[in-house]
Amino acid sequence: PHTKLLLRAVTDEDVTRLTEIRIKRISKFNSFKADVKIAGLEESIVKVKENLAALTEYTVDWFKSLKKKYRAGRERKTELRTFDTIDRTKAAVANAKLYVQKEDGFVGTGLKRGEGEFICDCSDIDDVIVFRKNGIMQVSKISQKAFFGKDIIHVAIWKKGDTRTTYNVIYLDGASGRSMVKRFNVKSITRDREYPITKGTAKSKVLYFTANRNGEAEVVNVLLKQSARLKRLKIELNFSDIAIKGRGAGGNIVSKFMVKRIELKEEGVSTLGARKVWYDETVRRINGDGRGKFLGEFNAEDKIMALQSDGVYSLTSFDFSTHFDDKMFSVEKWDEERPVSVVYYDGDKQDWYVKRFLPEMSVKPAGFIGDHKDSKLALATSLYHPQARVKYNRRFKHTRDKEDEIVDLRGFIILKGVRALGNKLSSLPVTEVLLEPVNLELEASVESEIMESRKLNNVEEESKVDSVELEEEPFIPNPVEVKHEEVKLEIKRHKASDVDEGGQGSLF
C-alpha cells in the first residue's frame, strides 16, 4: 500500500539485495562459539558456589581489591565528623520579629512596628512566655497575633528546661494584704495554660518584676506608705538572700503594710556561679556536658574568642546554640590581657610579617591581617611563649644552604594594635612558616610568671588607691587643752615709816 509513496517502483533486484546478506548471517548458527560460552558459564557457576561456601573470606578479599584498585590518586576529599543531636527550635532561623501591645494584650509577629513594642528576633516555631500585672503567666506558640490579656509586664522567648533564667518577683497577696517576694525558674509547662505566680487570690498583683538570664539578684528599696503604727518606711531587700524555688511557691513575707513604690538600689550579679563550658571539635559546638576540650568556667560577662583561617577573630557569648564556622581553627575563653601572636603574608607589601596584639572587645568580627586579597595567615596562637619554624626558599644561591630557623615570637616584637602592620619576619625569601610544638614546661613557667606579675600589679594599684584616700583625708590631731595656772598680781601700799631709806632720804 505504500509503494505509491516511493520515488520509483520496487524491483526484484531491490528485494534480493535487502535480504540476502543479513538474513544469511543471522540464520547461520555458530555451534563452536556456543560451546565455548556454555563452558564459561559452568566454570563461573562452580566459582560462585565456592565463594558462597567461604563468604566471609571472599568479602574481605573483595574489599581489599577495591582498596588496591582505588588507592592511588583517589584520596578522601570529605571529612569524617560526628553528627550532633539537633534541636529544631535551636537550629531554626530567626526570620521573624516579635512585637507586643502591652496595654491591649496582643503578642505576635504580625504586628507592625508602629502598632507595638519590638521584643526580639524569633522563628515561627519558638514559644513565647507572657507575664501579666495580675500575676498570670502563660506560654504559647508564636503566632501572627494572639491575645494574652491586658496589662502585660514581660514578654520573651521561652526555652524548655532553662534553669539559668530566673525571675525575681514582689507581689501583693490580695487575701492577706501582705507583700511577698520570690525567685523561680520556668523549666516545664503546658502550652496555653494560665499559671498564677502569686497565691492566686483575688486582687493579687505584681509590684516588682525582673527576668534575669543568668540568675542575677539585685538589691531594691521597698518604700512603705505612711502609717501611724509604722516606724520605718524603707526596707532594703537583697534578692540574693531569697532561695530559688518553683513557680508555685508562695514566697517570703516582705511587709504586712501597704507598699508605696519599689526602687532599684543596686544592679544584680549572678547567684548561680560560673558555668563550666567545653568545646566539641567534632560538631563545632560548645556544651556543658563535658564533651571535648575544657574552655573554663564562664560568668555572664565572659566571652569566647574564635580565631579563623582568613585572619579574623570574633567574640561571642557562651550560647550553646552557637555553631562555629569551618574557617575557625581555635576556640578559647577570651582574656583581655592575653596577647595573640600572628605570622602572616601581607599582599600589599608582598612580604612576611610578625605581630602581637591584645584582642579588643568587638561586637562584629575583626580582621588582623589587612584587607588585601592576597594576604594570608600562616599561624595565629594565644600561647604565652610561641615559637615558629621558618622555612626558606632554597632555589636561590644565597639561601641554598640556609637551614630552617626557629623564631621566638614573644621576644621578636612588642605588643601593638590589632590593625598594626607588625615587624618584617626576614629579608630572605620565605616559603612556609609553621608553629612549633608546645613546650609545656616553658609555657607553664611563663604563664605562672605572668600571673604572678598581674597579682603584684593589682596589689600595687590597690596600695596606690589606699594612699590617695589617705591624702584626701589627712590626719587631724585632736586639740589638746592646756591648763595654765592663774597668777594673781597684788599691789600693796606701804606706810612711810615702814620704808627703810638706808640713810638716803636726806638726799631728796
Describe the structure concisely.
By secondary structure, the chain is an alpha+beta fold.
Structural commentary:
- Among the domains are: 89-270, no CATH class; 275-445, no CATH class.
- Strands 8, 9, 11, 14 and 15 form a 5-stranded mixed beta sheet that branches. Strands 23, 24, 26, 29 and 30 form a 5-stranded mixed beta sheet that branches.
- The chain is an alpha+beta fold and 508 residues long.
- It is built from 6 helices and 31 strands.
- The chain is extended.
- The longest helix is centred in the last third of the chain and has 33 residues, at 440-472.
- The protein has helices spanning 12-27, 31-53, 55-69, 88-91, 409-412, 440-472; strands at 96-101, 106-108, 117-122, 127-132, 136-141, 146-147, 152-158, 166-172, 179-184, 194-196, 205-212, 216-224, 234-238, 244-245, 252-255, 259-270, 275-280, 285-287, 293-298, 304-308, 312-316, 328-333, 340-346, 351-357, 366-367, 376-381, 387-392, 405-408, 415-416, 423-424, 430-435.
